[in-house]
């Protein structure tokens, strides 16, 4: 057995199941705000393509993917992130993935040296794949508390130079999970300067980039920042995107990685052995998805409507604010976050995720403590009902003195 498996923490939802042991929620319908699985309808055109291309299961897919898929992705990314024609080569600077989760994990296995003193720097709170990828690649995770910008962005200025010298890979998440914070151009400039000085690679998880308020500027991506900073080769930089959140297709397992051609050449070699080529009918469906923006705009409007409906209900009872992007709320809780989540489930049959399950103690602080993550992925009616139950729960607890 690989002894590194023993270093892995239980996944957040395993912890949540353990937390709920012995509870007896009321018989009213359960509403889950705990997992970020989109529930909006999948685009009909994508499902049609998927069905019409099922005959392609008779063919082995290539690890590098169909040229038509890479071209569709490059066209989308160039338009979305203002990269300029010809500045993202679909043959050398882009690979399809079976979703960002698979790519974020396997990228670390390909990039890291495995030496005992190597580090992977991660924001805190974080997506747990970052930690698991580091540990199973033989590195140690180093967590940077997200204390900048009102508790949203990782404070990379707090990291000692000696730590950067040991760093081989940095994971970013912008827009952030769970706080929705978005990195700006100066944030990228400072991190890129550190990468050049200390020789590490940056892996930017941008799977929430298309969920933002329809009337504001789209979140800045790392490749776009590179272009604006005259780094046309995207040296040391790769970005990960997915159709799961953008297009409500979490079960399609389709995404891509793009950026530094040297990194991706090494990653392609790894993936050829890994055996993770995307099925051809999934590739065909993905082409349809990347070529259409109408369903993405409708998706944004649906999330905007849910935030508009839910926040006025919760604001009198919780310290909560609309995120810059993404579909999570990240409120402070009036009691311990585990106690809040367990009692809310037991009394109102609503599940939220304790913030401490998404973070680790770093510099004596666990930045997820006394917060919970709420994913507004269900229907607007269910999200409103959940907010009303949460408000009722807090009001009742306030009145009986248990808060």
Oligomer classification: single chain
As residue ranges, the low-confidence spans are none
How many domains? The number is: 2
Mean pLDDT level: 97
Count of helical stretches: 15
- In the CATH scheme, the class of the largest domain would be Alpha Beta
Q: How would you characterize this protein structure?
A:
This protein has 403 residues and is an alpha/beta fold. It has 2 domains: 3-41 and 295-399, Aspartate Aminotransferase, domain 1 (Alpha-Beta Complex), CATH 3.90.1150.10; 44-292, 3-Layer(aba) Sandwich (Aspartate Aminotransferase, domain 2). Helix content is 41%, strand content 13%. The longest helix is centred in the last third of the chain and has 21 residues, at 294-314.
Summarize it.
The chain has 403 residues and is an alpha/beta fold. The chain has helices at 12-19, 44-52, 67-80, 99-111, 128-136, 148-151, 161-166, 185-198, 222-228, 243-246, 261-274, 280-290, 294-314, 337-348, 380-399; strands at residues 31-32, 94-97, 119-124, 140-145, 167-173, 201-205, 237-242, 255-259, 328-329, 350-351, 353-354, 372-375.
Core attributes:
403 residues, alpha/beta, Aspartate Aminotransferase, domain 1, 2 domains, seven-stranded mixed sheet, three-stranded antiparallel sheet, 41% helix, 13% strand, aminotransferase, transferase
């Amino acid at each position: 057995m690989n002894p590194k498996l023993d270093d892995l923490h239980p996944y957040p939802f395993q912890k949540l199941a353990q937390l709920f042991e012995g509870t007896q929620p009321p018989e009213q319908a359960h509403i889950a705000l705990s997992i970020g699985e989109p529930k909006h309808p999948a685009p009909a055109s994508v499902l049609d393509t998927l069905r019409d291309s099922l005959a392609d299961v008779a063919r082995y897919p290539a690890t590098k993917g169909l040229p038509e898929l890479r071209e569709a992705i490059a066209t989308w990314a160039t338009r979305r992130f203002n990269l300029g024609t010809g500045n993202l080569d679909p043959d050398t600077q882009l690979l399809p993935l079976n979703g960002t989760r698979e790519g974020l994990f396997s990228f670390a296995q390909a990039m890291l040296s495995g030496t005992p003193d190597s580090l992977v720097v991660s924001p805190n709170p974080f997506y747990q794949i970052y930690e698991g990828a580091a540990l199973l690649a033989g590195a140690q995770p180093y967590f940077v508390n997200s204390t900048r910008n009102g508790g949203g962005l990782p404070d990379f200025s707090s990291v000692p130079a000696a730590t950067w010298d040991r760093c081989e890979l940095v994971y970013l998440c912008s827009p952030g999970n769970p706080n929705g914070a978005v990195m700006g151009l100066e944030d990228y400039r400072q991190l890129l300067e550190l990468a050049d000085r200390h020789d590490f690679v940056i892996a930017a998880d941008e799977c929430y980039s298309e969920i933002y308020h329809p009337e504001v500027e789209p979140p800045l991506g790392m490749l776009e920042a590179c272009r604006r900073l005259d780094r046309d080769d995207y040296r040391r930089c790769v970005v990960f995107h997915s159709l799961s959140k953008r297009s409500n297709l979490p079960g399609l397992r389709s995404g891509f990685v793009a950026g530094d051609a040297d990194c991706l050449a090494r990653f392609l070699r790894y993936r050829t052995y890994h055996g993770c080529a995307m099925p051809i009918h999934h590739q065909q469906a993905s082409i349809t998805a990347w070529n259409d923006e109408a369903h993405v705009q409708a998706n944004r409007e649906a999330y905007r409507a849910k935030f508009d409906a839910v926040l006025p209900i919760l604001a009198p009872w919780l310290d909560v604010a609309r995120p810059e992007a993404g579909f999570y709320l990240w409120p402070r809780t009036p009691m311990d976050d585990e106690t809040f989540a367990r009692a809310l489930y037991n009394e109102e049959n609503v599940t939220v995720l304790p913030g401490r399950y998404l973070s680790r103690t770093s510099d004596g602080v666990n930045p997820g403590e006394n917060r919970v993550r709420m994913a507004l992925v269900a229907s607007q009616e269910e999200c409103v009902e959940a907010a009303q139950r949460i408000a009722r729960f807090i009001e009742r607890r306030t009145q009986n003195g248990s808060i």
